[in-house]
Amino acid sequence: MNEIITALMRLGPQLAEHVLLSSAAVALGILVALPLAVWASRSAAAARVALGFASLVQTIPALALLALFFPLLLALRSVFGEGLPTLGFLPAWLALALYALLPILRNAVTALTNVDAEMIEAADAMGMTGWQKLWLVEAPLAAPYIMAGIRTASVWTIGAATLATTIGQRSLGDPIFAGLQTQNWALVLAGCIASAGLALAADGLLGLVERGFAQRRKVLWAIGAGLALAGVAAAALALVVPGQQGKSIVIGAKGFSEQYILARAIGITLEEAGYRVEYREGLGSAVVHSALTSGEIDISVDYTGTLWTNQLKRTDNPGRAAMYDEIVRWEAQTSGARVLGRLGFENAYGLAMRKSRADALGLASIADLADVASGLTMGGDPEWFERPEWQSVRDAYTLRFADERTFSPTFMYNALASGEADVISAYTSDGRIAADDLVVLDDPQGALPNYDAIILLSPDIADDPDLARALAPLIGAVDVDTMREANYAVDREEDKWSVGKAARWLLDEVTG
Amino acid sequence: MADAAAPFLDFASVSRSFGAIVALDKVSLAIAAGEFVALVGTSGSGKSTLLKMVNRLIEPDAGKVRLNGKDVAEIALPTLRHGIGYVFQGIGLFRHMSVAQNLAIVPRLEGRTLPESEIARLLELVELDPALAARFPEELSGGQRQRVGVARALARNGKLLLMDEPFGALDPVTRAALGERVRRLHEELGLTLVMVTHDMAEALMLADRVLVMSQGRIVADETPSALLAGAGGDEAQALVAVPRAQARALAGRNVRSAP
Questions:
Q1: Are residues A322 and A376 in the same domain?
Q2: At what angle do helices A173-182 and A257-272 cross, to 10 degrees?
Q3: Is the pLDDT score of A288 beyond 50?
């Protein structure tokens, strides 16, 4: 309980940004939806097109809609110039506004097309122009229904805005995503409570406005609208007051524990060197590299094997050193980003077994495994058996398992413990390897590509010598055992550490 | 009575079809200022179509409608309609506006405010308590609403009032009282009234001149007394026969039930 309250107290900036983002998105949604609704109420064809489009948008999962704005804005840079932001507020704002469109549009069109025919006949017969009819008759009669649509849109938007975290916009999704990853339920609950509370407050205030319109009570809607606007203004003020001057270094992190810990470790190191830092955590794995090369974030930790396949589009495996050198060259040449160096550990796919079982079977490497595989079960995460790594290792050692089974990453380790799988596709820096007393089998043929963790600097700061000097102590300093232990400290069920504590511990280990 | 040079309102060979149905078939008609004309006929006879051509809620396919000698098609719609009162069965009071706001709407469209004293006078004209000015339509009875509808139609410059089945939805007592009131307003204010009704009795009691319509044509144009005396042809007499038979039947009952 106390942890939740502590977490809630720290959510001030997230709450403020969440309020601003949601209100800006609903405002834009209103601005687009109302003229469309007037047009749609006068033309059945326009109504079909507008409502069809808004419904189509609604069928796109919010997470995907947010992510889709990244490539879109990137393409638009050719029109608006390099200054156009591709992550953060702009794409979140646009995507959420699109999302807010449907309820406002649908309610407004329904309300406008259902104004009593008698009133319309009277208005026409007394010589009202189209605008006078809209302003004096249709708008006031439709107002309560339109307000109900805005209310629905607001609640949806506040909920969906938590997903803005994944594209680098600070929101109440920050604690939710961080907490889900590190299984810190206090953090998840704090984020959920805050966003649910915000949604309820917005719903209540806008409900007051709606009632005010319906009952023609000015006081009621003035109070509702006044309080809602005051809330938005307070949020804006809260963000302006701290008076941020100068540019801070933005550190990105993908959505899993190791990334959170390393981002914090880099951040702490830079802060001690006098830099101001910000974090963009929980970024989608696909957007991190683009975010770095486009300068939305300044520093990221990535893995050589990931970049090799996803960015360089290569399928061969030239070996550890050649791969690293090629990535350094490729980044410098194509994106201008700088590979500062390897951290020292790998987070690769590896074949892992219980140590006792491997010893009993006399297995030390994957080559040994080939002889006994026909009596064993291989377990993998949902994508493992489709990945090139599996095909490569299977072909290199001619592995033929008795059975192949798929598990979610968490259950994969449980399956090993319970004997439902004998060998699994583990992540080599996973804390459970040490904790569960597992062994990662050697790969003498180098069939599994390397996933060296490397620090990447954006083109903007690639040539900053002070920064490189500040980060130098981390290069080559994090061995896989240290990383596993830090990961385990935040992943385990009991005596769970915060990400910040694990990061400090890691720094003490590598520099102390 | 009619001004030969320029009738107040005249229809010159107007026609209108809706798809295959001919609603009006080359109708010509002149109405003088200050007349109270009733358009009577069965459903689909074209009477409402003819009425709505005056304020151009319906436009003719052919022919012209002239008001004070001027083709209504050439008058800007707001100008034309601001000057013509329109009362219809649906009433169409704006339910988000008070009675006073409803009465003041046309002056408001013309950029004027209607003084409170004028609102009170309009309410008194239709025999309503001026205290009702602050009420909203949903707080009024059906009869009160239509009285406000009539008052709203009077709140403008111009003396032409178009009425389309104005009392059709009212109970008989209210209907008779409001009909009487409108008749007296016609006399007191010198209004020109064109009223569509399917009720021949109402037309005979209220109007100066009764036009009978059938299949898009005017088949009779008579005074009430002439119609009662048997003029106007078969179709008109078929309509007159209904109230006459009712009156006779009622008179018969009266005699039988007398002590």
A1: no
A2: 120
A3: yes
Block mean pLDDT (10 aa), chain B, length 259: 68 93 92 94 91 94 93 92 91 92 92 91 91 92 92 87 89 88 91 93 93 93 92 90 89 63
Could you tell me if A385 and A504 lie in one domain? no
Q: What value of ipTM does the predicted structure carry?
A: 0.90
Amino acid, res. B149: G
Question: Does residue A202 sit within a domain?
Answer: yes
Which residues in chain B have their CB less than 8 angstroms from residue A136's CB?
A: 94, 105
Of the residues A114, A126, A141, A218, the best mutation for testing chain B's interface (the one with the most B CB atoms within 10 Å of its CB) is A126
Q: Which of A240, A267, A298 is the last residue of a domain?
A: A240
Look up residue B175 and give its two tokens.
């209907």
Distinct helix (H) and strand (E) counts, chain B: 10, 10
CATH for A273 = 3.40.190.10
Residue B85 lies in a domain: yes
In a domain, A445, yes or no: no
Domain, as residue range, for B185 = 34-60+73-252
What total of structural domains would you count in chain B? 1
CATH of the domain at A407: 3.40.190.120
Same domain, A403 and A273: no
Residues in B closer than 8 angstroms to A117, CB to CB, are 90
Instruction: Say what the pLDDT of residue A119 is.
Output: 92
- Cβ of A130 under 8 Å from any chain B Cβ? no
**Closest to B99 (Cα-Cα) out of B149, B157, B170:** B149
A136 in contact with B, Cβ within 8 Å: yes
Q: Which of A192, A219, A240 is the last residue of a domain?
A: A240
- Whether residue B173 lies inside any domain: the answer is yes
Cβ distance of B88 and A121 shorter than 8 Å: yes
Q: Is the Cα dihedral B50, B55, B58, B59 positive or negative?
A: positive
A77/A43 Cα distance (integer angstroms)? 35
Residue A118 sits in the same domain as residue A225: yes
- Shared-domain flag, residues A129 and A61: yes
Identify residue B173 by its one-letter amino acid code.
V
Residue A478 located in a structural domain:
yes
Tell me if the pTM is above 0.80: no
Residue type, A270: L
| Residues A177 and A300 both lie in one domain | no
Distance CA A163, CA A178 (A): 12
User: Which residues in chain B touch residue A121, judged by CB atoms under 8 angstroms apart?
Assistant: 57, 88, 90, 92
Cβ atoms of A154 and A30 within 8 Å: the answer is no
Q: Please answer whether residues A409 and A347 qualify as being in contact, where contact means their C-beta atoms are separated by less than 8 angstroms.
A: no
Q: Write the DSSP string, A462-509.
A: TT-HHHHHHHGGGTTT--HHHHHHHHHHHHSSSSPPPHHHHHHHHHHH
Q: Number of structural domains, chain A?
A: 3
pLDDT in tens, A128-181: 998 999 999 999 999 999 999 999 999 999 999 999 988 878 889 988 888 876
pLDDT at A243 over 80: no
Selected residue with higher pLDDT from A348 and A86: A348
The reported pLDDT for the residue numbered B156 is 83
- Check which CATH number belongs to the domain holding B151 and give it: 3.40.50.300
* Band of residue A63 on the pLDDT scale cut at 50, 70, 90: confident
Residues A272 and A416 occupy one common structural domain = no
pLDDT digits (tens, 9 = 90+) for A178-227: 887 667 788 889 999 999 999 999 999 999 999 888 888 888 888 888 99
Q: Compute the C-alpha angle B126/B127/B133, nearest 5°.
A: 80
E strand or H helix at A124, and its extent? helix A117-125
B16 in any annotated domain: no
- pLDDT band at residue A469 using 50, 70 and 90 as cut-offs: very high
Predicted local confidence at residue B255, as pLDDT: 57
Looking at the fold, whether A373 and A260 belong to one and the same domain comes out as: no
Instruction: Give the structural domain span for A407.
Output: 349-440
pLDDT at B257: 52
Contact A137 B95 (CB under 8 A): no
Which chain A residues are closer than 8 Å to B81 by Cβ?
124-127
> Shortest CB distance from A127 goes to which of B91, B94, B109?
B109
